[in-house]
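URGENT: need a sanity check before tomorrow's submission.

F., can you look over the D-amino-acid oxidase record below? I want to be sure the sequence and structure line up before it goes out.
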Amino acid sequence: MHRVGLVTAGKHVVVVGAGLAGLTTAVVLAEAGASVHVIAEQVPGVTSLAAGAMWGPYLVEPKDKVEQWGQRSLKIFRELAQDPATGVRLTSGIEASRTAEAAPEWATTLPGFRPCERAELPAGFTAGYRFTVPLIDMPTHLDYLLRRLRDAGVWSSSDG
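Structure tokens as predicted:
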């Protein structure tokens, strides 16, 4: 699915952590041909299970790399949203603020982006915008990643 330039078949890799980042890393490496072992306190990780997941490269550095990473992940999540079993879906909504703030640059490139009319905003909010973004149901998505790992022959260990 995704090209990994530094990993070749036969390499042995240990991934520490079984949250979204750890499992995604393990999937990409395993599907690129690496032999992967996931070590975690719990599989799947409990932090990601409790986290909400709306796509957006918010307050991430380094800015010169974030745009590339954001666009790549957005493309992948849009593809995943075509299959309900992944836990990813495209969702339209409003992001509102109590202070007048400009929308982040990345948001202005999203489908359906537009500033909200005052009447659209919830009570007490003065600014906002609409857009469509990937929204990830974490328990479903983590199960999806675990299925991909099992299909790729990855094994894990935990002490929980």
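My own read: Residues 5 and 32 are 9 Å apart (CA to CA). Strands lie at 12-16, 35-40, 88-97, 114-115, 127-136, 155-158. If you see anything odd, call me.
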